[in-house]
Protein: SJCHGC07022 protein
Organism: Schistosoma japonicum
Amino acid sequence: MHENRCQAETNLSMEPTFNMIKTELVEAYSNYKQLEGQYMKLKLEVGKSCIIDNKYILI
């Protein structure tokens, strides 16, 4: 019983750290999804281009 109480107190003391890390993870994932969208957009643009005389020309 005492061990369970100690574990519960430890878990509660770690909750602010967990919440901070969770928030950082959500923000990082959001940034990742935004950058992934930009990457896909650029990838499509490059896919629609060709190289003529060592210069990219959009088709």
User: Anything to note?
Assistant: The mean pLDDT is 85. Residues 2-58 form one domain. The chain has one domain: 2-58.
